[in-house]
Design a protein that fits this description.
The chain is an alpha/beta fold and 255 residues long. The chain folds into two domains: 95 residues, Translation factors (Elongation Factor Tu (Ef-tu), domain 3); 148 residues, Rossmann fold (3-Layer(aba) Sandwich), CATH 3.40.50. It is built from seven helices and twelve strands. Strands 4-3-6-1-2-5 form a six-stranded antiparallel sheet, with helices on one face. Strands 10-9-8-7-11-12 form a six-stranded parallel sheet, with helices on both faces. Helix 7 links the parallel strand 11 and strand 12. The two termini are 25 Å apart.
C-alpha cells in the first residue's frame, strides 16, 4: 500500500533533556498496532539553502486508542528532521505517512510464551512503552521485563509512566534501568550484552532467561543489537524469530 501523507498539528513539544523530546500531535491515523512506526516529514532548507521536504521513521508511543499521537526522539548533529522536529511549537504542522507499518509488534511474538524480555537503548524504549500501555501485554505474559540502557541517568525518561506500570502490575512487571557512563543508585552500570552475558540481568530480574519459555525483543542502536544477538545465540541458544521460521529474538534497529 502506497504511503499517504496527512497533516498533523502539534499539541505539545516537550524538551526532556538537552537532546531528547516528546512530540505530541493530532492527526487522523489509520488503524495500527502498538509498536509500529510512521515517517514524519518536515520542510527545511537543503545544502543549497532551498526549502525541501525531509522525512525519517519514528515509532509511536501512543496506543491506537489514544486521542493524540506521540513520538520520543533525540536530536543529532546536522539532522534535518530531528532538529526540525525539535523546533516545532504548539500549533505548528508537520506531515505523517499513513498507514503506520512494521512487524515489531506483540502479535508477532509466538504463542505460549510466558516471559517477555524487552531490551532497549535510548529512544528505542518508545515502541515498548506503546505495547505496555495495551491490555495485550498483561493478558498474554506471566512476566514482563523492561530494560532501558542510557549513557546518563537523566536520559531515563518516562519514569512516571514506568512507575504506573509498576503500580498496576506489581507481580508481573520488572523494570531494570542501566546507566553506562556514571554511577547511579538503583541502576546497573554497563552495556546490555555484558550484563546479559555475566548473569546480572537475570539476577536483577530474579528470573532465568530460557528459550523454552521466553521471547526477547531488542530495540536500539546497532551495536547493542549485534552484540546482544550474539550473546543470545551463543549462551542461550536463542535464534532470530522469522515469519517462516519461529525463533526467540525479535529486533528493530533505531540508530
Amino acid at each position: 500500500m502506497a504511503a499517504n501523507w496527512v497533516t498533523a498539528k502539534v499539541i505539545e513539544n516537550q524538551k526532556l533533556t538537552d537532546r531528547h523530546y516528546s512530540l505530541i500531535f493530532d492527526a487522523e491515523l489509520m488503524p495500527f498496532q502498538a509498536g509500529q512506526f510512521a515517517r514524519l516529514q518536515i520542510e527545511a532548507k537543503n545544502n543549497k539553502g532551498e526549502l525541501e521536504k525531509f522525512a525519517n521513521p519514528y515509532s509511536l508511543i501512543n496506543t491506537p486508542d489514544e486521542k493524540y499521537a506521540e513520538v520520543y526522539f533525540n536530536t543529532v548533529p546536522d539532522g534535518k528532521v530531528s532538529n526540525g522536529l525539535a523546533a516545532l511549537k504548539a500549533g505548528d504542522t508537520l506531515e505523517i505517512a499513513q498507514p503506520c507499518v512494521g512487524f515489531f509488534v506483540l502479535s508477532q511474538v509466538p504463542k505460549d510464551i510466558k516471559n517477555l524480555w524487552m531490551l532497549s537503548t535510548g529512544t528505542g524504549i518508545g515502541p515498548f512503552l506503546s505495547m505496555l500501555k495495551t491490555a495485550e501485554a498483561w493478558q498474554r505474559f506471566d512476566q514482563v521485563i523492561l530494560v532501558h540502557a542510557v549513557p546518563h541517568a537523566n536520559e531515563l525518561c518516562y519514569a512516571e509512566l514506568i512507575e504506573q506500570f509498576k503500580s498496576e502490575h506489581p507481580e508481573q512487571f520488572n523494570f531494570i534501568p542501566i546507566v553506562s557512563r556514571e554511577d547511579k543508585e538503583a541502576t546497573l552500570r554497563g552495556r546490555i550484552p555484558a550484563l546479559l552475558s555475566d548473569g546480572q540481568l537475570e539476577k536483577q530480574a530474579n528470573l532465568k532467561l530460557s528459550k523454552d519459555n521466553s521471547h526477547v525483543m531488542l530495540c536500539g542502536n546497532s551495536g547493542m543489537l549485534k552484540d546482544t544477538k550474539a550473546v543470545l545465540k551463543d549462551q542461550f541458544k536463542m535464534d532470530r524469530h522469522l515469519n517462516h521460521k519461529p525463533g526467540h529474538v525479535s529486533a528493530e534497529q533505531y540508530y
